[in-house]
Amino acid sequence: MTDDVIRVFLVDDQELVRAGFTMLVDSQPDMRVVGQAGDGGEALEKLQVTASDVVLMDVRMPRLDGVEATRQLQSLPEAPRVIVLTTFDLDEYAFAAIKAGAAGFLLKNTPPADLLSAIRQVHSGDAVVSPSTTRRLLEHFAGSLPDEERERPDLAELTAREREVLVEVVRGLSNTEIARLFTLSEATVKTHIGRILAKTGLRDRVALVVLGYETGLVKPNH
């Protein structure tokens, strides 16, 4: 297997679903299924000894669900990036999985081309949940979010401009829209977001959206 092949690991309690995903993934010249598991516990055991780049993780499984498996995976030295798969768009499991460190989530009925694109995106370091979708999830669970803004030490390290950019990321604006809003180049916006991620220790803009809501930086429905 060459270095540029994306190593995919499948976790789903339905063997037929895993077989379908295997056929789809293995049909691509730039990716290969390197292993599979029927629940989160088995996945954790196998991923300790199986090098993987991207994990497709069902959220609802016996023994150990996808949320807890995703959380525990993050403790591995070179943790693979996780895409959680769910049946419903507004799903408390999907929200919990994103908080646990997943790079994003997809519906199980996502078209094959979109699933393959998502694997490539996640492998390249992007998130596959649009901030607007994450925002809808967060607003759905707004009752558990703070009424008052809760400052975090790492947020205090942000410059005034970085804080402004973070707020717009949380609101779901794209880099292009943020650049237009502040009369900046898209490259400058990307630089700001990169510095925000570095200062907060977060992996992608989905995590920034969660951070913005959990600290009260942006309020639901605003």
Description:
Residues 7-123 form the Response regulatory domain. This is Response regulator transcription factor. It is a single chain. With 222 residues, this protein is of the alpha/beta class. It has helices at 15-26, 40-47, 66-73, 92-99, 112-123, 131-140, 153-156, 160-170, 175-182, 186-200, 205-214; strands at 6-11, 31-37, 54-58, 81-86, 104-107. The chain has a five-stranded parallel β-sheet, with helices on both faces. β3, α3 (66-73) and β4 (81-86) form a beta-alpha-beta unit. α2 (40-47) runs parallel beside α3 and α8 crosses α11 (205-214). The protein is globular. The termini are far apart. The model has no long low-confidence stretch (mean pLDDT 84).
Strand order of the largest sheet: 2-1-3-4-5
Report strand %.
5-15%
Given the helix and strand composition, which structural class is it? alpha/beta
Q: What is the number of strand segments?
A: 5
The number of helical elements comes to 11
User: What's the helical proportion of residues?
Assistant: 40-55%
Radius of gyration: 18 Å
Organism: Kribbella alba
Protein name: Response regulator transcription factor
Keywords: DNA-binding, Phosphoprotein, Transcription, Transcription regulation
Pfam families: GerE, Response_reg
